[in-house]
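Please, structure for the following, as tokens.
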Amino acid sequence: MIKKGGQITYEERRDALIIHVGGEIDHHSAVCVRTEMDEKILALRPTRVLLELSAVDFMDSSGLGLIMGRFALVKKYGGELCVLDPSPAVMKIIRLAGMERMVTILKTKVK
């Protein structure tokens, strides 16, 4: 799934699905997890998807595509996708891409 010892886990809470991602997100890993995430999201159709990225050490443009694709999927059925606690590496690329204007970024951890 996610390379360099990373992982992806799911947590269901009422109408929300929290997807915890760790490790590195690049072209190869993004392709692998996209299908798995989509299957889970479509099976549950949660009102809210929280993509928790605090344990992501590295993310390139493929990671941006992964986020935007899940954003479009969730929006298509009337749900909302938020990025939860992005790591500094993830937040840097999100800012560079200007994606924070489109996707809600939630920070619950004090740094």
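The chain has three helices and five strands. The radius of gyration is 13 Å.
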